[in-house]
Amino acid sequence: MYLDPPNPPFNHRESSGSTLQGDYGSPISSLSRRNSLTGVPDNAGLSTADSSVSLTVNYLPTKFSNPQLNQLAQRKRRPHHRSAKHADDLSPGAGVMPKMGGGVDAFRSGEARMNGEDEDEDGDNERVEDGSRSRWTKKPAKRSKPRWNRFKWTLFIANLFLTIYSFIGLIGCLLTWFNVWSKADIIRVANNAELTTSTVAAAIGIFTCLLGWAGILLNNRSFLAVYCLLTWITFLFLLIPGYLSYKRRAFNLEGKVNAQWSQDLGAEGRLRIQNELACCGYFSPFVEATISQTCYARSMLPGCKLKFLDFERQALKYFYSVAFGLVPLQLFVMIAGLLCSNHVTYRFGKGMMPKAYRLSMTSMAIIMDNYASQLAEQYGENVAAEILTRSRSDLQLSAMPKMPYAPPVPAKAAPSQVYTTTRYDAVHTKPPGPGYI
């Protein structure tokens, strides 16, 4: 004899025999109704601060439906034109697969919360159903074109700017260190601090942008979190050469150049500047000059003070102009990273089930108790016991804690009449199981 499948406890039933509808749409199972008759507190199966019962027992989203619970449900929808020919396709478990939802539409009113196909819109259509690695959908023959959201495009543009000026800055600094530019040796001697900090800032910028590319292309939010931190460090190192060069140029540059020539450069440093600027001595060949083939007592070359001072003004202005000119772009990179790094895909958080909603063995026992009550109500106690035994063997639930259940009291029965047939141990009298996470 063919038996219609029972309604699960988390589906709304048309009849009022087992499940009632609360004020806010949360189902009140037959367990609560029996507790009111037996004197057991109504919150025996509810999750509290001292309870190990999952909140999934009390609130189950609409992602669960008969076709998904029925083992005979097909994974593909029926074509629309075949629905008229097969009237029985609309029956539970006959191949009507509801929309799984998730992704961009996950926060609409009444939307299912189950991750759907390509829920983060990154072009990857493979989804894993459970630990057995079975997939919700088959891999399409032709891979769809990846889709980037606006936050990912913003990160892409911001990191592209960071990449461009970091590489340009590092290349310029390296060419200066290798003495490729004209008069680059003067900067290596007289502006070593500014050149060193600029090189370090460019190197940190390159490392930051490479980490950013890894996070953007791999949709890795951990990389992007570190990327946001490194953009601030890059910003600090970008301000250092600008501050040093501006402070040196704006406040008594002539006095600083005089002290540098007489105290800091030394004979070798003065010789390198004399060769680059074609001068001899500071004021004349007789004042703090380093003897060379072109600089001697009767040399006709002028002193180096004027040429050196003009060169320093121009070089220092170039340093702080470039450094401070990159500040708006670096601020854009930092703000874009802070606002968009956590939205590189539409997936909320890490995609993990909250701890309060994770199923434990105790929670599964409550669900099985509700299921057993409905089976006993519809088909009788013997059929319910047989179905539960088969379900336990198929689902490998032999280690699950057992609970008492009793068929609901008939409408005309006295309130004190309660069935005493028990098949499980009471949940509220057992300590939390070791399987609770």
UniProtKB/TrEMBL annotation:
User: Where is this protein chiefly located?
Assistant: membrane
| TM regions (residue ranges) | 153-178, 198-217, 224-244, 318-340
Which UniProt keywords are given for this protein, alphabetically ordered? Membrane, Transmembrane, Transmembrane helix
User: In what way does this protein cross or attach to the membrane?
Assistant: Multi-pass membrane protein
* Chain intervals with Basic residues compositional bias: 74-84
Q: Which domain of life is it from?
A: Eukaryota
Q: Where is this region: Disordered?
A: 1-50, 66-141
Start-end of Polar residues biased regions:
16-38
* InterPro entries in alphabetical order: Tetraspanin/Peripherin
One Gene Ontology CC term in the entry: membrane
Q: What is this protein called?
A: Tetraspanin
